């Protein structure tokens, strides 16, 4: 009888796999290179052969697999099973669900990778049992996922949770989405780098940072008391706190989870963030709210993808 | 056998009642004055005697009533059944659910009035069958309700959907919530009045509007081409569009419904609002979205309150 779910997290360079039980225990994981050539047309057959190979080597018969969940970095329509647009993969109007279902002969469920990272933390990580959770991933850009009433919020275009594209600065920095002043141009690692370069135009401000410093160096310097670094971190956490306070007014979550590379800065990030947040937030909306860091790291995606399939197949109650 | 639900909409001056079938047909409605004296301590007994009287007069036996839903203008914790704070009623940390259940000997479910107005429009009004809907009510202030995956979003403090307290202007106008720059200080009837008074300080701008003009007069004057009125409407719809675009990025609804007194301005409100919105919104999030006006008017609350009880009692599927 079927008892395992395959969770897949498709990324621009690596595709991660996990075999999980329907109750969320990870019994194996591996990864392969993502071949994005030819608009990613070969990815699905690579996924198929990789699963077959892993199952053969680990003596997992096909009959043990109940279904497959897949997270994709882009706009994904769970309802229609289509990937609207995933620029780093090459998929545009791509019927991912039906393509994989045909190849694997298993039920397949798809969603956005940041949504599923949130679902992973909700199922087996930092937000376990919190029925309303906001997860933000601070990496190169800012990803987000919203869990409400025990399910992931997707929306008809699959753009729900795109907190990185929250507009914060009128006529601000140009974003990759084509608009001006999106949050991720100020707070993600690319945003911090842009702030650094802006500030370094005034050489008097520069201390231990220079043009080649990375986002994580900025946090390190801030921790060591560097004035410019603290100014950049202060500005970034101000914008992020503003967005979180407005998000909290709309959803009233119980938990805000911070993940992604920049979350390694821990208290250097969290302390100014929470200080700004407390000044912005509607008091009543803050009463039952707490902040936390993600716990599943790079595995959040495969947990969340497995959760999606387990949930849609009826293994997880509301 | 039980077949009716009582929907109650408690307001600062009037409490509205409706008797609805579990499938949403309204078979009777009435209203009474809300006695807010003594911190609203007598409201529940007035509700009880009013229901008893109506049922006696209309020959509805108690056995026909399945349950009661109540909407309250304030922060309501549906889970604990407590009204956290309803300033216009006088209830603070008030156990509304248990008080009414004891008096009525019926299951009672409570929620925020704007959330339930949204649920009413979702059940029997302008957003029928739209599984993800945002409703905004433009009255004296700005109320909001969010429907996702077929249920109302409430949050542990009951503050979800409080879109009127979305911060739009740094160090802006002082709001009744104690913070600065909340949306409702710029776009609701009180906000439009504040904008008018601000602008009238410069007498050259004044045309057919004066200090005593109401919000609806501003829309009327705008329609007739009054420059000042158009400037005020343009400013208000700019802020509202900014908030809606950011809200849409967060949860990607299918429908935005506009209700409340100011929605009477129809196209004079909607046309500049949508124009600003199209400039702000993330293209992908706008693909499956449409705007509409509320259809249930002042009855939205009793429909939504009935929906809440019918839903929680299992009469409505997901």
From TrEMBL, chains A, B:
InterPro entries: ATPase_NBD, ROK, ROK_cs, ROK_glcA. Pfam families: ROK. Keywords: ATP-binding, Kinase, Nucleotide-binding, Transferase. Its EC number is 2.7.1.2. One of its GO terms (cellular component) is cytoplasm. GO terms for molecular function: ATP binding; glucokinase activity. It comes from the Bacteria. Gene3D superfamilies: 3.30.420.40. One of its GO terms (biological process) is glycolytic process. Belongs to the ROK (NagC/XylR) family. This is Glucokinase. It comes from Geomicrobium halophilum. The lineage of its organism: Bacteria, Bacillati, Bacillota, Bacilli, Bacillales.
